[in-house]
Design brief:
5-stranded mixed β-sheet; globular; 18 strands; hydrolase activity; Fumarylacetoacetate hydrolase family protein; Fumarylacetoacetase_C_sf; hydrolase; Fumarylacetoacetase-like_C; single chain; 13 helices
Length: 388
């Protein structure tokens, strides 16, 4: 049984899926290629007649009215894409830039500082955690990034020789915005998620992902796993690219929930993202990340990503960061958490559903072999070249 065959639609959709506007992507065997889709009562309907890409779809004027059209081709039931009989579920983005904000939660800043101080050695983490936690934990909770209070905290920690580059982007005026992955490279719900084979200390990062069109307007949200290699990035911040952008290291899904009269950015800002890791060794770990604890407003982070100095003509998605940095011992006392091959990772929140993936090495995951040129050729072959 493959990982996707272990999933059912009822287990990955929002609790109020009957009222949600859910768009995404599937690889359709019938269409012989990727299709933007809308989900209705568990059935998958093709939106290629409006736009052959999700990027183009999100640029459509009066989007909600256009996709409300009842006369859309049905591709099958979602379960048929989860069991492989009609195709497969893809990440719900295609041409968009895939960006991420780092160190956005005060409660996870301590762990980033520990990574830096430990220089990638997980064995030193507990000692450093015990030394730093009383100072940083007491001073960062409730501190708004870029505020006068944040500047006071910075001065205090500098005097104590505890200031860090992670704290600079965590509570300083400028957020860390980096490229998580390349357009077309993300994996979807049910796929394997990859760890670079050089890493021995790593963890999932359960996050809300905002979806924007080219002018920076936030149109909706989904879930993401910003896989983190703690030992690699901990050795040097200059290894961020190697730690973050690897084969199958970015998971997004299951669907984009578009904003409407009931589901808004205000609702997103109050969601609690939960994490469940279940190992083949019987290990289990849970955690949660309430978005209300974020140190910067999501709209502010989008403004730091997309502005007059930086544009994204195909749109962009932005991982908002996580406050969850797992420390539960797995391989031995004081060693903290790290993944093992075969771990099942479930990232959930009732209004967005569940993103489920299984962990493997990035060199054992399927290679990324369908890029932008392949997409363009496929769409032209299917007579959709004018719908991009």
């Amino acid at each position: 049984m493959t990982s996707t065959q272990a999933l059912k639609a009822v287990g990955i959709l929002p609790d109020d899926a009957d009222r949600a506007v859910l768009v995404g992507r599937v690889w359709s065997q019938a269409a012989e290629g990727p299709c933007p889709v809308i989900l209705r009562n568990g059935d998958v309907f093709d939106l290629s007649g409006i736009s052959a890409t999700v990027s183009g779809l999100l640029e459509t004027p009066d989007l909600l009215a256009r996709i409300a059209d009842e006369d859309l081709p049905r591709l099958g039931h979602l379960d048929e894409f989860l069991d492989g009989s009609a195709g497969r579920l893809l990440a719900p983005v295609d041409l968009q830039a895939i960006k991420a904000a780092g160190v956005t939660f005060a409660d996870s800043m301590l762990e980033r500082v520990i990574e830096e101080q430990a220089r990638g050695d997980s064995g030193r983490a507990q000692e450093i955690r015990a030394r730093l936690a009383p100072v940083i934990g007491e001073n960062l909770r409730g501190v708004q990034a870029g505020s006068d209070k944040a500047r006071q905290v910075k001065s205090l920690l500098q005097e104590m020789n505890l200031w860090s580059q992670y704290l600079e982007v965590g509570i300083g005026p400028d957020a860390e915005i980096f490229t998580k992955a390349q357009p077309m490279s993300s994996v979807g719900c049910g796929d394997k998620v990859g760890l670079h084979p050089i890493s021995e200390w790593n963890n999932p990062e359960p996050e809300v992902v905002l979806v924007t069109r080219s002018d920076g307007t936030i149109l909706g949200a989904t879930l993401g796993n910003d896989v983190n290699l703690r030992d690699v990035e901990g050795r040097s911040a200059l290894l961020l690219g190697k730690a973050k952008d690897n084969n199958a290291s970015c998971a997004i899904g299951p669907f984009i929930r578009l904003f409407d009269g009931e589901f808004t950015l205000d609702v997103v800002e109050k969601v609690v993202v939960t994490l469940l890791v279940q190992g083949e060794d019987g290990f289990e770990m849970t955690g949660e990340s309430p978005l209300e604890a974020i140190s910067r407003k999501p709209a502010d982070l989008v403004g730091q990503m997309r502005n007059r100095s930086h544009q994204y003509p195909d749109g962009a998605v932005l991982f908002l960061g996580t406050m969850f940095a797992p420390v539960k011992d797995r391989r031995g006392k004081g060693q903290g958490f790290t993944h093992e091959i075969g771990d099942r990772v479930e990232i959930s929140t009732p209004r967005l559903g569940s993103l489920v993936n299984w962990v493997d090495r990035s060199d054992a995951c399927p290679e990324w072999d369908f890029g932008t040129r392949d997409l363009m050729r496929n769409l032209v072959k299917r007579g959709l070249g004018g719908k991009i």
